[in-house]
Amino acid sequence: MLLTALGLGPKETKYALENRTWKSSLSPVALYNLLPEDGRFESVLALCTEEVLEKTFPILEQELPVRCEPVCVPHGVSSGDLQATVHNILEKIPPKTKLTLDVTHGFRHYPFLFFVACLYLMALKDVEIHKVWYGRLDAKNPDGAAPFIDLSMLLDMVEWFRVVQSFRDMSNPKALADMLLAYGMDEIKPARNISPDAKKKYNAVSSAAKDFAELFGMGLPLELGMASADLQRRIEELRRVGDISSIKIPLANELLLEIEKAAERFRLPESKEKKDLVLDLEEIHRQAKLIDTYFEAGYYNNAIGLIRELIISRLMLADDEKSWLDISQRRDTERRIGSLMDYSKKNSAALTDDRKMLAGIWSFIVDARNKLHHHGMTEGGVKQIKIPEWWDKFKQRLDDNSFWDCGFGGGSGRLLISALGLHPGFLYTALRQVNPEVCLVVASNETVGGLEELTRTAGYSGDLEIEVMNAYSFNGIKNIVDKFEGRIIGFDEVVCNLTGGTAAMQYAVIQFARRAERLGRNVRWIAVIDNRLPDEQKLDPYFEGEVVFLEDAGI
After folding, report:
1. Model-level pTM?
2. CB environment 329-347: b (16+ within 10 A), e (fewer)
3. Percent of the chain at pLDDT above 70?
4. Which residues of the chain are under the pLDDT cut of 50?
5. What is the distance of C-alpha 140 from the center of its chain?
6. CB-side neighbour CA atoms (13 Å) of 300
7. Residues 371/364, Cβ–Cβ less than 8 Å
8. What DSSP designation does 384 have?
9. For 532, which of 73, 91, 347, 464 is 20 to 30 Å away at the CA?
């Protein structure tokens, strides 16, 4: 289909396209006859005022062998008139039309209306703009012919500007990647005037842009940083093969420079592998910039998830943890900040303002992340999550090492938690070799009476806490643990004895250990070994056996 406009008083003119000429009083007639037969339009839409419809449109119908349809437009240029003109154009052009434009005749503002209509049609009706022709009546060839100028590049420019802007703003980096790939297939690959090396380098740029867009969408800051460096390197290699204007992208140098600048924000040193990346303040701030970008572009899921990882990384940096990408180390740090959060909910008055702020931020992030990453699959409604009010203040604390201390409690040394069963030697050995400041004994009515003799024989001079329970009942264990929670917080290390007592008593020790871990204490497990025969153990119960720290033994 051809979209054109007609004016009053047409004059016969010789038009030229490439090496051919044609005389006509109307440019659409000349254009039809100058185009190759397989490239001619099959119908014409012509903008006409009432006067033009009466005087000029009949000439068009008479001289063209295809269907011609007028689009009646108002004569005025008010806002309402302009909108009506664009509306009338859009109404006549069905989706997926292959459209050619001729902007030679008509009022001077018509090309702008065509331009707006084309942007709409391309974006929302999947219309392909094949060519935009302009018969240049004011600058004729030496033979007096008015040349047809192809202005299609102007629409191409707008599309390239749009996708590069979306890449710069990171609102939709995939649009640029898609356009680069499509342009490579449609224009670069079949082009004969582009060297094989330039084609190869162009394909590398489009592939690197695709990788960048995918990694940005996935929210992978380290991989994205390496992809940023790769994209910049590929663009530089494309420049080195020669004049990149041969690839025919409008303002190619300028657009590629904008792409490089946009990617620079997230760049990591190209020469390093992921395992060799160093955690430092520069890396922390680089990821904070990425989070800003995610918030600005509306990628809240990625932003919230990455804040969570940024907090863990910053805590590890404060601890001078070198293995910052080791999953077990990150989980340990996560448990520590989680312990501070849990403690803060009941004991915020005991914390400094910085600890309370850190705990509150972690609580917000955990809640928001769960809602977002589970996509609202909860009974309660999920409110829209916005940029947190504390985010700007939070970024100001990234360099403040003292802020990144999620420790609390402690100061009371080592606590030993052990069950006391019918073989007192297990606790005896543990007391002598662990030497805790405090020992919490889970005893039964049958064994609690022997504690005084046991501690005296072991030479234990520390404090003793006793919890008596039914040796064969699991009921009430939670109450026992809850009662002692306040004491557990004060210890730097909690050692739990895996040996001795009934199954119920051992379960109580396990629950104490779990509570201690949740409170951020360093929990270690031991086993006591006595290789003597049972009869020997009964005859001499206070025999010092062997204590094995299970973590140290790799168990």
Report:
1. 0.78
2. bbeebbebbbbbbbbbeee
3. 99
4. none
5. 55
6. 15
7. no
8. P
9. 464
